[in-house]
């Protein structure tokens, strides 16, 4: 007696994302993260975008295994080529009537968006785009839904990955507890000129080898880095010991290279990072200080960087804008550097410049022309009195 024939099993339904690649990687990442349960991902790219590495940037930032992606290269201005390449891909993926698609047309050229919309609107699909500057996406097919909130908040590393900025060492090489750092801010702004000169001297030890320390009897090291004689070096070391007692330094003397960096200015980066983190209620993965980054083999350092509501913020921190040895106000150069970092990295960031120098007309002050120049560069420049009320100048924390 023959057995009844069984119907062939149906392939499992798959949800496949389709993203159009452009210089703006972040909207694609936000949409991918807004649709859980996606089984496979198609990136519609162009030779120009592939040369820039924009498609790979999305793969890296997403954290999704590379084998779950397929990149197709199209002529970005040719409707027929795009349709042909999509037909070929669907055949290779053996898509069927049970498969559905989440299609993000935010990126790409207008021709790419039009071609992809026309192609997938005839298939089971949800077609969306992300309006500029919004943490939301709009659905335009099969329904018209103006706005659906995007709940994802990218980390600092994810944001930098989107723009192919490599992160190196991070977080600062030396830090003290928050209570000391916050108290040191108030001590610093009350320091006299002799105390500030001592801190400026500490900067000259930044090339001290990692295995060396500044000790009570380190006359030879002091002579080498400060270019002074024996008796001057001994007197200088006594001033250091006295200074550490005055500020109630919780560490040891000898001082390591990283402790000297902290005292000569890194403490201000830590102070800013603490204030920003507490006010903005940021997770540790969303804010870092003393961050070494690199793009296209060009290294840079970000004093403080953080992400908030899927936007990037960069802060340059200077305890002083005045060089006492040359008698020069260095703010013009520092503003140019802060602005060039943003451009070199190709980042769309809100940039701040914080200094503990006062506003005024003195040679060591923030002058009106500095404020005008910073504004023209798109930098938010805060001098001492504004830094004291830092929170007033930061974005509002997001509601929980």
Q: What do these coordinates show?
A:
The protein is of the alpha/beta class and 400 residues long. The protein has two domains: 15-152, Rossmann fold, CATH 3.40.50.10770; 153-400, 3-Layer(aba) Sandwich (Trna Endonuclease, Chain: A, domain 1), CATH 3.40.1350.10. The protein contains 14 helices and 17 strands. Strands 3-2-1-4-5-6-7 form a seven-stranded mixed beta sheet, sandwiched between helices. Strand 11 (287-295) and strand 12 (298-308) form a beta hairpin. The N and C termini lie far apart (68 Å).
Labels describing this entry:
400 residues; alpha/beta; Rossmann fold; Trna Endonuclease, Chain: A, domain 1; 7-stranded mixed beta sheet; 6-stranded mixed beta sheet; 14 helices
User: What is the strand tally?
Assistant: 17
Integer count of domains:
2
Helix % is 25-40%
| Mean of residue pLDDT values | 92
CA radius of gyration: 28 Å
Low-confidence stretches: none
* Major sheet summary line: 7 strands, mixed
How much strand? 15-25%
The CATH architecture term of the largest domain is 3-Layer(aba) Sandwich
Task: Give the overall form.
Answer: elongated
Oligomeric description of these chains: single chain
| Class from secondary-structure proportions | alpha/beta
* SS summary, helix count: 14
CATH fold-level assignment of the largest domain: Trna Endonuclease, Chain: A, domain 1
Distance between the termini: 68 Å
Output the strand order for the largest sheet: 3-2-1-4-5-6-7
Class of the largest domain in CATH? Alpha Beta
């Amino acid at each position: 007696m023959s057995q009844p024939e069984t119907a062939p099993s149906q392939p499992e339904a798959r949800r496949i994302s389709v993203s159009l690649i452009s210089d703006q990687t972040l909207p694609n990442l936000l949409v991918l993260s807004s649709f859980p349960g996606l089984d496979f991902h198609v990136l519609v790219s162009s030779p120009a975008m592939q040369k820039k590495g924009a498609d790979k940037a999305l793969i890296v930032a997403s954290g999704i295994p590379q084998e779950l992606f397929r990149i197709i290269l199209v002529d970005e201005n040719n409707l027929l080529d795009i349709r042909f390449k999509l037909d070929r891909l669907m055949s290779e993926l053996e898509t069927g009537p049970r498969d559905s698609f989440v299609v993000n047309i935010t990126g790409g050229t207008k021709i790419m968006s039009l071609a992809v919309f026309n192609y997938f609107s005839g298939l089971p699909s949800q077609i969306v785009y992300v309006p500029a500057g919004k943490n939301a996406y709009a659905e335009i097919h099969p329904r018209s839904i103006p706005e659906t909130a995007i709940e994802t908040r990218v980390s600092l590393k994810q944001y930098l990955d989107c723009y192919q900025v490599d992160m190196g060492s991070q977080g600062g090489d030396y830090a003290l507890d928050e209570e000391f750092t916050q108290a040191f801010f108030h001590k610093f702004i009350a320091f006299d000129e002799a105390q500030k000169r001592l801190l400026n001297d500490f900067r000259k030890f930044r090339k001290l080898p990692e295995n060396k320390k500044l000790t009570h009897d380190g006359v030879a090291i002091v002579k080498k880095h400060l270019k002074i004689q024996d008796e001057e070096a001994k007197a200088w070391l006594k001033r250091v010991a006295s200074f550490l007692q005055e500020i109630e330094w919780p560490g040891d003397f000898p001082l390591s290279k990283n402790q000297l960096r902290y005292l000569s200015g890194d403490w201000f980066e830590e102070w800013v990072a603490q204030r920003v983190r507490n006010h903005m209620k940021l997770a540790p993965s969303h804010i870092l200080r003393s961050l070494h980054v690199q793009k296209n083999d060009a290294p840079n350092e970000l004093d403080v960087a953080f992400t908030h509501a899927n936007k990037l913020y960069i802060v340059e921190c200077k305890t002083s804008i005045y060089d006492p040895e040359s008698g020069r106000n260095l703010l013009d150069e520092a503003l140019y550097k802060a602005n060039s970092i943003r451009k070199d990295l190709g980042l769309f960031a809100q940039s701040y410049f914080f200094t503990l120098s006062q506003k005024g007309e003195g040679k060591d002050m923030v002058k009106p022309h500095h404020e005008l120049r910073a504004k023209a560069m798109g930098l938010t420049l805060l001098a001492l009195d504004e830094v004291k009320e830092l929170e007033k100048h930061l974005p509002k924390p997001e509601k929980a």
